[in-house]
Amino acid sequence: MExxxxxxxENLVYQKSRLMxxxxxxxxxxxxHGVVVRTIAEVIEEMGIEHDVVGISPVGCSVFLYDFYKFDxxxxxxxxxxxxxxxxxxxxxxxxxxxxxxxxDLAAIGTAETMHACNRGENIVIVFINNGIYGxxxxxxxxxxxxxxxxxxxxxxxxxxxxxxxxxxxxxxAQLDGVHYVTRHSVHTPANVRKLKKALRQAxxxxxxxxxxxxxxxxSNCNSGxxxxxxxxxxxxxxxxxxxxxxxxxxxxxxxxxDMNLPR
Amino acid sequence: MAKIKGAIVVDxxxxxxCELCVSTCLxxxxxxxxxxxSKGYHYAYMANPEACTGCTNCAIICPDGxxxxxxxxxxx
Lengths: 264, 76
Known about the structure:
The structure holds two protein chains of two kinds. Chain A is an alpha/beta fold. Chain A has a single domain (30-256), classed as Rossmann fold. Chain A contains eleven helices and nine strands. In chain A, helix 2 (32-47) crosses helix 9 and helix 5 packs across helix 6 (111-119). Chain B is mainly beta. Chain B has a single domain, classed as Alpha-Beta Plaits. In chain B, strands 1-4 form a two-stranded antiparallel ribbon. A two-stranded antiparallel sheet of chain B has the order 2-3. Chain B is elongated. Chain A binds chain B through residues 1, 3, 6-8, 11-17, 20, 24-25, 27-35, 38, 187, 189-190, 193-194, 229-231, 234, and chain B through 5-7, 9, 14, 16-20, 23-24, 41, 46, 49, 52, 54, 56-57, 59-72, 74. Strand 1 of chain A pairs antiparallel with strand 4 (67-74) of chain B, so a sheet runs across the interface.
């Protein structure tokens, strides 16, 4: 059987979500951002909530989120996505509100806004992309940069004596009483993408049931910033990033399930 | 015994040639083209169409969402 005999509308099993626009992503080839952006659209399409959803895009590589989605997206000032989400959710509580933030946005400039939104238990979903670097501005050191990791602003590797330790922010957020669900995933294999999709669905369902803040962290690659090919960047991530940022649930149904003895 | 056959369609103009689909495909169906698209990237294509099972792994891992997957069952 020829491929052209198989390629018929009735045999279609997978295509890009209809909530994605025709705009080409501004992400570098092989960037994990694209997978996460697509997966969020798939979850929203499956739940049928595209008319009731408002996304908040951050400053960073994902700043053009409003170009990629066909549903409503608001662009927030750097680090203020959780504050904007709080405002929108309180004025229009029936809307599903999610923020999409990188590690520079959530863990550096927006630490205060994020901490206090979580502490208030704002009923929003926070999607947090952690690639240990400021990608858009040219690969500078971020709070999440690993010890010894080389970036353009620490070319000899991060020295913890002068630059501090890598900030592992999601376990901190998990300890706040307002937070209902915290989990960490990655997108380097199809199995991990499927797990992420389930976690995102859980997070949006928590918001529907008015449970409190849900945080989904995605440990991702930044192959341009790390100076590696997409495949090599994924392998480097598995080898190094997962030691400091192990995958798995941290808080489920308002109860901490992570092992505090693990290097988190 | 019925056989599962699959096929993929790649939007070659939007493909950025990251090759993640090539390393993900368990059947080694996908290869990178010799010619380049208008942005200068070598794009993914079905180098070995006979082996495709339509598992959708390549489409799920594609960061740019350029792959559509088709699958059908063939009775012998």
